[in-house]
């Protein structure tokens, strides 16, 4: 049985060690990091079932990190903080957190809250796959399978591919892709879309497939069946 993966972000080494030990003893897979920048890098490249995030962090704080996470994924977040006022808890929840644990806390309490969140997710499952011909995408795992070949996807690759899959046969303009995946406040240009599409094509367009991501001159891209 595949283990649930939990990402812990706290600059206190004692907190990281105690949570990691408790998570592993309870059968979880745990990754602990000490700052928000490392956390954001990790969630770009792999899937986690739950994130445990301290508010008081060096550099980017936990509240700002929570906002950034919500631009990328909807992984459940449990906030940790030495500030335990009602206003602090409300602020944490308003930024997108699912639960809040004031410090000091028992690692067992955090484990119980993680299990409750996972139980709620199990009762309200999200769609597990999207498919087109030989392509099947597993959003919760950041993976695609093409002709029984498993392909890892970054968060951005996954988001773009899901957008195309939800609009099979329709043109997705570069601006539409930018707005949906990078957000309306993105200040870069549309070439980032072209670069990402090239990466996706290289990964999923294998031999003997009956789908393609076609360029539509002057407009954008379209995922469609072929042959």
Offer a few descriptive terms.
4-stranded antiparallel β-sheet; elongated; single chain; 5-stranded parallel β-sheet; alpha/beta; 12 strands
Write structural notes for this entry:
26% of the residues are buried. The chain is an alpha/beta fold and 227 residues long. The protein starts with a strand and ends with a strand. The model has no long low-confidence stretch (mean pLDDT 87). It has helices spanning 13-25, 36-45, 62-72, 86-94, 107-123, 155-165, 174-182, 191-204; strands at residues 5-9, 29-33, 50-54, 77-81, 99-102, 130-132, 135-138, 143-146, 149-152, 172-173, 211-216, 220-225. It has eight helices and twelve strands. The strands form three sheets. Strands 2-1-3-4-5 form a five-stranded parallel beta sheet, with helices on both faces.
In short:
The protein is an alpha/beta fold and 227 residues long. It has helices at 13-25, 36-45, 62-72, 86-94, 107-123, 155-165, 174-182, 191-204; strands at 5-9, 29-33, 50-54, 77-81, 99-102, 130-132, 135-138, 143-146, 149-152, 172-173, 211-216, 220-225.
Helix content: 40-55%
Class per helix and strand makeup = alpha/beta
Distance between the termini: 39 Å
User: Going across the major beta sheet, what is the strand order?
Assistant: 2-1-3-4-5
Task: Tell how many strands the DSSP assignment holds.
Answer: 12
Strand content: 15-25%
Largest sheet: 5 strands, parallel
Radius of gyration: 20 Å
Number of separate helices: 8
SSE order? EHEHEHEHEHEEEEHEHHEE
| Poorly predicted runs of 5 or more residues | none
Q: Which shape, going by the Cα principal axes?
A: elongated
Mean pLDDT: 87
